[in-house]
């Protein structure tokens, strides 16, 4: 991504150099230490329109001062390696690749062309100059490990602990998306193509460039996406034009996934003309190129069942095994869920790869959380045996 794409029809954002806006790295932050900065990861297929979406966000009136980070890593293993070597500051180029720019709408944009952890830590030392972070990954990146890094980041340096992961947004190319998903199939039993990983790992999906395709192609792409990830709302966009409430400040890792909570909970999901559910496939079990999603409903859960569920998830995520079906091998990319205990406590389940969290949720009447809970798993090996095993754990 660059800020000077000349092939974009719209006026590029006016960028004004403001060297004095950059906060002294060594000065103390203007924000209280406890304030955590939300971070949205924007991933998507090569050329799908990630930069176009970013430009759009940066030039809209949203009230945030946004820092943009561009992920130059082609290989996610590199990110993890850098995460471990935080203190070695092995990033000699980052010092020169930081830019602070003020946009015409007053939004401050800090762009770092490297997402090495050391660079992000330096960025966090400047907090006070921005209050939201957008991280654009390369078209080939798997957002899973990056999301994990920001989600449970206490073990990394303090700079990252002040970031809270808001959500993962995936931009799919309406023209080439379907073809890419079909080609990007598993090469062996446990390898999963990047485009499918990106869709599976996302909280919101935009099918962009819908001006360039016929309705049938669009429908086919949307159906494939829904088969991979039924828990994420899908919006159709032209040049990233979307109500920003759908993609930033969504607290996807704190609130229940509205897309799977059914009609009762639709008020937490803001529907619009962009959002078409009319031809959603039936919500049960789908499979695309070895990746499948599995949804299981449950009633209110007592403590023994909550404990069993926790154990079942741990086994599946950490051991790739199913408690009562040892011959089943699973690889779970993402899990989400919401359920209620017999004591009236509402819980949200969120998982990215091997990390998961079951957290209590404060519920207001207006959220309309139903007593019926749901759990969605996305990954490989999620067959009928796995579904039955999970249903058994959740059954009264
Ligand atoms: N017709 C049309 N063109 C679009 C739309 N969105 C983006 N484009 C064009 O598609 C091209 C690629 O868009 P980018 O925003 O650079 O895509 P990207 O995902 O950032 O690309 P990479 O960083 O290379 O992966 C540019 O020429 C955009 O002007 C759209 O909705 N419709």
Automatic annotation (TrEMBL):
Keywords associated with the record: Chaperone, GTP-binding, Hydrolase, Nucleotide-binding, Zinc
Domain CobW C-terminal: 309-392
Keyword NAD: no
Alphabetized InterPro entries for the sequence: CobW-likC_sf, CobW-like_C, CobW/HypB/UreG_nucleotide-bd, P-loop_NTPase, Zinc-reg_GTPase_activator
Annotated CobW/HypB/UreG nucleotide-binding domain residues: 38-235
Pfam families: cobW, CobW_C
Gene3D superfamilies: CobW-like, C-terminal domain, P-loop containing nucleotide triphosphate hydrolases
Family the entry assigns: Belongs to the SIMIBI class G3E GTPase family. ZNG1 subfamily.
The protein, known as: CobW C-terminal domain-containing protein
Organism of this sequence: Hebeloma cylindrosporum
